[in-house]
Design goal:
Helix 3 packs across helix 4. This protein is an alpha/beta fold. The protein is built from six helices and eleven strands. The longest helix has 15 residues. It has a nine-stranded mixed beta sheet, sandwiched between helices. Strands 2-3 form a two-stranded antiparallel ribbon. Heterodimer of an alpha and a beta subunit. Keywords: Electron transport, Mitochondrion, Transport. Its main location: mitochondrion. It comes from Salvia splendens (Scarlet sage).
């Protein structure tokens, strides 16, 4: 069984985000970039499935500018067998990404497609669902546990919902998006990092996959959230109740 894993290059989660002066987006120049944390979880799950003997190959895929190769090298160092980079220098939105992945799935024929449930840069939480719709594959989102049956025909997925956990049974091939509590991603070891540097990353473009990139969204303006007001120390419970009742209006 082959597993395809989406990995996205994003601003590192520990970086303080700054809006560009022209308010066209966030500043990414001279900013530390890394693999999206949810994508790390998806890749870790694919590697665990392979290590259990249920899969023979894990292929990491990234779509974006040339710098995405660094993210793919990280994926290879973690244990991915191959990497594919679909190079596109412009801004990509979920539907365009989903169309590219559909074309890749048609070419690679994986039995399972794993993605993070969302990217921490745009928080769209749409790509996995759109890919499943285009492929007409079953899907399970926000997975907190994934179990494959003995014949790799069915995946049983626990997913987190507002009321607790929901368990789904999916016929493979399928699309699964991963949540935080699915696993703890491994660190790439130094020997594997060195080996990853010599591995070949397959280069493609949307044109190679016969995918036309059209912008169906327009970002009008990006602004920082308003500054939070400083807290107030109150001298009595009566004052607190008065503030909650007459100012906050929550009681």
């Amino acid at each position: 069984m082959k597993i395809l894993v989406a990995v996205k290059r994003v601003v590192d989660y520990a970086v303080k985000i700054r809006v560009k002066p022209d308010k066209s987006g966030v500043e990414t120049s001279n900013v530390k970039m890394s693999m999206n944390p949810f994508c790390e979880i998806a890749l870790e799950e694919a590697l665990r499935i392979k290590e259990s003997g249920r899969a023979k190959e894990v292929v990491a895929v990234s779509i974006g500018p040339a710098q995405c190769t660094d993210t793919l090298r990280t994926g290879l160092a973690m244990g991915a067998d191959r990497a594919i980079h679909v190079e596109y220098p412009g801004t990509l939105y979920p539907l365009s990404v989903a169309k590219i992945f559909k074309a890749l799935v048609d070419a690679e024929r994986p039995a399972l497609l794993l993605l993070g449930k969302q990217a921490i840069d745009d928080d769209c939480t749409q790509t996995g669902q759109m890919i499943a719709g285009l492929l007409k594959w079953p899907q399970a989102t926000f997975a907190s546990k994934v179990v494959l049956d003995e014949g790799n025909k069915v995946a049983t997925v626990d997913r987190e919902v507002d009321g607790g956990l929901e368990t789904l049974s999916l016929d493979l091939p399928a699309v699964i998006t991963t949540d935080l509590r699915l696993n703890q991603p491994r660190y790439a070891t130094l020997p594997n990092i060195m080996k990853a540097k010599s591995k070949v990353i397959k280069k493609l473009t949307p044109q190679d996959l016969n995918v036309e990139i059209r912008s169906d969204l327009e970002v009008v303006q990006v602004t920082e959230p308003p500054q939070r007001q400083a807290g107030v120390i109150l001298s009595s419970v009566d004052q607190l109740i008065d503030r909650l009742k007459n100012e906050a209006r929550v009681i």
